[in-house]
Amino acid sequence: METNILLENLYKSKWEEISDTLLSFNEEEPEDTENLATHPLLIKIDEEYEKADLKIMFFGQETNLWCGEFNQGIFGYDIEIEDILGIYQDFYLNKGYESYGKPFWNYIKKLKSHSSINDLQKIGFVWNNVLKIGKVEVGKPQQGLLNKTLEHFDIIPQEIEILKPNVLLFFCGHGYDNFIRERVGDFSVESIGKFDVRELCKLTFIKTPVKFALRTYHPGYLQRLPEEKRNNIFNAIINILKEK
Q: What is the pTM of this model?
């Protein structure tokens, strides 16, 4: 598939640079195992996305212990781009996440299976993360790794250019707004209905090819909201997507 070839070529163009960077980062702090860099999130698509009428790229926060099959997830093992893409295919495209049981993926399953949007048009979803490289333990990477990722692996705008999504959905919470601005592009914030902008809002990107986006809480936080509020946010997202 031509789109996947373009993505792989993008990753190859950055691979030597980011590999050297992550290897050096992990070697500098060998005792600090919980903050060691893991493998980058490299993405690919299937025909469902390629042929979709409405293409949606949804974002989580960061991936921890990604590709744990290799060197316990710590970057430094002799792993190739193809290996990481294979993990993405098994976990996301082949729906391995359906047995994962985490709030984020339960929410995505619910969203993707909602009949009212799928009946209207062919919809394709592709998974991405705001922070492309996480750490071995759960949580946000330390600032040093965030800086190195931004300097040496700033590729989300190019992924968007290749994949041409119609909508961006950010399930990361307002605390990641600065990361979104740094890694995706600057945007304005607009309230939706009676929702507080922290709960659900529209993001309009200024220079990014995709102008329309929604941002809400991470599903791990969403599940702690009162059921009525949680359902209202979900239904509002569905209704907005139906209008697209």
A: 0.95
User: 230-243 pLDDT, tens per residue?
Assistant: 999 999 999 998 88
**Fold exhibited by the domain 2-243:** Uracil-DNA Glycosylase, subunit E (3.40.470)
Owner of token pair 């949580």? 139
Question: In this structure, what are the phi and psi dihedrals at residue 22, rounded to the nearest 5 degrees?
Answer: -70, -35
- Please report how many Cα atoms fall inside a 13 Å half-sphere around the Cα of residue 243, on the Cβ side: 7
Q: Alpha-carbon distance 74 to 135, whole Å? A: 8
17-55: string of b/e by CB count within 10 Å (b at 16+)? ebbebbeebbeeeeeeeebbbbbbbbbbbeeebeebebb
Q: Domain residues of the chain, as ranges?
A: 2-243
Pairing type for strands 54-62 and 187-191 reads unpaired
CA distance 92 to 148: 26
173 — alpha (psi -120 to 50), left (phi > 0) or beta?
A: left
